[in-house]
């Protein structure tokens, strides 16, 4: 397939193993393929519903985002200095930094779906940098609702303070309808630790600068 470049190719190199896989220049390993299946499954991870991984009609390689806004309820990050003030909340689309959408409270807590290209190279994840490993970010997705006490601190009454990075009245905005964010406390997470390893292996194929071995190229 001929790819049409709108900008200088060096701006978005598309040199990941996954790009070469789409161009049929390399195979994914069995583990990476397992991870992709878990990532795609609408009743499992359901990740691809927001982090789109389909090739475009024009043959363009996927960006792993739908450019939409969602509230995932990422836990508050006590490492951020601004969060020392219990009344301070970074609510994304409704402010306080952004002001143009602030009047509609249904926007509070919503952040843009980010591309997952090169995400496996990062040490901070989500808008507030709450997680420092990719696997913890993945665990959060599948255990947010099944094991909330693992992710959120307890409030003054000893109750798990779920979605604690939003004012209580705005926590209704957090997504509880898209898989895998629909489970109940005590239910089994949709992914096992093995599944998380497999998805992490798949996501690592999205890192640029993959070196094709001469034998693998056709
Ligand atoms: C309902 C849409 C939606 C679904 C489903 C979804 N994501 Fe996300 N993803 C987002 C949004 C929105 C963000 C940014 C949220 C934020 O920063 O608060 C994000 C952020 C991330 C990040 C952090 C990237 C970074 O660089 O900070 C990772 C990793 C990620 N998603 C992986 C996944 C995986 C794996 C799945 C499947 C279990 C998944 N996502 C399912 C919308 C979604």
Short key terms for the protein model shown above:
single chain, 218 residues, mainly alpha, two-stranded antiparallel sheet, 2 strands, globular, binds heme C
Describe the structure.
- The protein is mainly alpha-helical and about 220 residues long.
- It has four helices and two strands, in the order H-H-E-E-H-H.
- It has a two-stranded antiparallel ribbon.
- Helix 2 (about 30-40) packs across helix 4 and helix 3 crosses helix 4 (about 195-205).
- The longest helix is centred in the last third of the chain and has 12 residues, at about 195-205.
- It starts with 16 loop residues before the first helix and ends in a 14-residue tail after the last helix.
- The structure holds heme C.
Shape: globular
Low-confidence stretches: none
Cα distance spanning the termini = 14 Å
Task: Summarize model confidence as the mean pLDDT.
Answer: 93
Task: Write a brief caption for the model.
Helix content is 18%, strand content 2%.
Secondary structure elements and their pairing?
Elements: H1 17-22, H2 30-40, E1 69-70, E2 111-112, H3 134-143, H4 193-204
Antiparallel strand pairs: 1-2
The protein binds heme C.
Residues 45-47, 49-51, 70, 72, 74, 111, 113-114, 116, 119, 122, 125-127, 134, 137-138, 141, 175, 178, 180, 199 line the site of heme C.
């Amino acid at each position: 397939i001929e790819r049409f470049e709108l900008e200088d190719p060096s701006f978005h190199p598309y040199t990941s193993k996954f790009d070469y896989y789409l161009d049929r220049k390399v195979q994914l390993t069995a583990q990476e393929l397992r991870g992709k299946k878990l990532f795609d499954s609408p009743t499992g991870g359901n990740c691809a519903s927001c982090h789109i991984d389909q090739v475009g009609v024009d043959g363009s390689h996927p960006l792993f985002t739908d450019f939409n806004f969602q509230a995932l309820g990422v836990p508050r990050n006590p490492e951020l200095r601004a969060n020392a003030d219990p009344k301070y909340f970074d609510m994304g689309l409704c402010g306080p930094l952004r002001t143009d959408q602030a009047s509609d409270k249904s926007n509070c807590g919503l952040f843009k779906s980010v591309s997952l290209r090169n995400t496996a190279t990062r040490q901070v994840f989500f808008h507030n940098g709450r997680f420092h490993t990719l696997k913890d970010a993945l665990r959060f997705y599948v255990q947010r609702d099944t094991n909330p006490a693992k992710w959120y601190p307890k409030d003054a009454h000893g109750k798990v303070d779920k979605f604690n990075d939003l004012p209580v009245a705005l926590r209704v905005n957090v997504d509880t309808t898209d898989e895998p964010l629909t489970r109940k406390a005590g239910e089994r997470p949709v992914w096992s630790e093995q599944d998380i390893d497999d998805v992490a292996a798949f996501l690592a194929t999205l890192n640029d600068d993959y070196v094709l071995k001469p034998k693998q190229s056709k």
